[in-house]
Amino acid sequence: MTTATREETLGFQTEVKQLLNLMINSLYSNREIFLRELISNAADACDKLRYAALDNDALYEGDSELRIEIEHDSNAGTVTVRDNGIGMDRDDVINNLGTIAKSGTAEFLQQLSGEQQKDARLIGQFGVGFYSSFIVADEVTVRTRKAGTDAAKGVEWRSAGEGEFTIGELEREAHGTEIVLHLKDNAREFADDSRLQHLVRTYSDHIEVPVKMPKTETAKDDDGNDVEGSEVTTWETVNEATALWVRPKGEITDDEYKAFYKHVAHDFSDPLTWSHNKVEGKLEYTSLLYVPGRAPFDLYERDGARGVKLYVQRVFIMDDAEQFLPLYLRFIKGVLDTRDLSLNVSREILQQDPQVDKIKSALTKRSLDMLKKLAKDSKDSEAYQTFWNTFGSVLKEGPGEDPSNREKIAGLLRFSSTHTDSATQDQSLADYVERMKEGQQKIYYIVADGFNAAKNSPHLEIFRKKGIEVLLLSDRVDEWLMSHLTEFDGKSLTDVAKGELDLGEVEDEEEKKAQEETAKAKEELVKRVQEALGESVQEVKVTHRLTASPACVVLPEHEMGFQMRRIMEAAGQPLPEVKPILELNPDHTLVTRLEGADGDTFNDLAHILLDQAIIAEGGHLDDPAAYVKRLNAVLTA
Ligand SMILES: Nc1ncnc2c1ncn2[C@@H]1O[C@H](COP(=O)(O)OP(=O)(O)OP(=O)(O)O)[C@@H](O)[C@H]1O
Questions:
Q1: Which of 11, 273, 317, 546 is the right S-S partner for 585, CB 3.0 to 4.6 Å?
Q2: What atom of ligand 1 comes closest to residue 131's alpha carbon?
């Protein structure tokens, strides 16, 4: 039954169809989330109207008591969620309920394998929103009108969630939105008073807008029987209806904090931790910040949503206010409510307001402290590790972006290391320092393209022999991180593949003397190799870093590392050529063989050693065919 006119049927964007399919399959056991999502959207719509009405009171159309109403009809099998918020016009409806605007969606959906498609957590990364209605409904009708427009400008949208929707015009007195779900046979349990009330209290208690449900009372006669025609229906508020962050900390339970997170972050898994603070004095604000338990699919998208929900004196101003947190904390979600900004603040004004910088720096500190506490409290639990595995590579952008908090961030970093030889990044710099050998003055690390390339690098041979720990770095951002993190706890951080090897006092005088003697004895060999390799190398040396490999390549101390070079070259950034230093292991049989060779064999062997060293470090040969040819010549000689 509909009164809509001039109906038109349109197709969903392909991504919507895919998402609907995925959701219906994977979220079956979490299906009650549909109600939270619809209430969340309705509350946002009320917030938006309140904000818009700051400038133009008329938008309320005489009805400024914002509210959400939930009704059901168990005979018809319907549930209705209604709000008197901002509403939508025809274009809004088509854009919001027919497409998904987030960039990267198509790629994300395509990447999901068959098994992953059934995994509720993965689809949850996406934020399911309005479309979750179709988990429980086989037909959804949306009736809406944008506040401030003519009653004739109402819109009706209908869909069975199967590829298309119908949209038509509707005369609608009330502004705001009404969503009617026609429940599937197996979901009719939701058309029930106590079930709905329970869900509202569980999921939406903290929403400031009152959520109301009808209560019908009937007068009784003296015998206790209903008096016919005496029914009176009143709308009762079922949620707490106070903004959660305004309430005193001590009165809020963990479950309430978690439920609020789900509303703010559009996530349906629990956060890892949160930090709720009221600040009074020079700055006046309340912040409630959360660390999510999983990454949104667009964490690395340039225009991915980030930032906090901004309120000024309890009035919602905007979502995703990114000016209050640095980029390297873009995973933090939450709310900021302040008295220090004016109600008509815009994104442009935020960029120039000095108060914003002050709050940003305070929220940054709060976030870092919250992470520190999570690390400390979770010594035995997995929470910090989950955080690190999920967001560690984002936090690694910190020391470069935010020098003033470098030490703090450094304390939060976790690495793989030769101490465990495991790809799990779970060792802190403080752990490393605690384990440093007597006489060791530096923190050593290696950067490679992959964990195995780092772990098996020839550069580590001497360190392993002497039992000196080396951090194994292989994330794309690692070299950039290390270029900004040169010190921790007074110890310098040193790349073992760059510059002269200096083990400090870990080596005794005798060892150093023996090395000098070997270097002298091999002077002639070094000269010959240098001549044979000519322009391909910067220098040839004898080394004592190696115990098992015949040779390795090293870069000068201040040169950009191999990993960063490859990333920049792949991004099309031309870089001046850098020639490696070739270091030879004087104790290796191949080097001894080289010493005894001459003519073409010497030349071939010298080139083979250089090329092998480049391969072992993860590099690409300029002329791989020449390498194979030389190797074959030596093998068949
Ligand atoms: N009750 C409503 N009143 C007004 N606009 C609405 C309402 N419900 C949905 N919308 C509009 O539709 C858009 C899409 O809603 P949807 O729930 O799919 O996603 P979302 O809330 O933006 O984010 P998420 O996918 O993370 O939940 C909203 O951003 C909003 O603009």
A1: 546
A2: 18
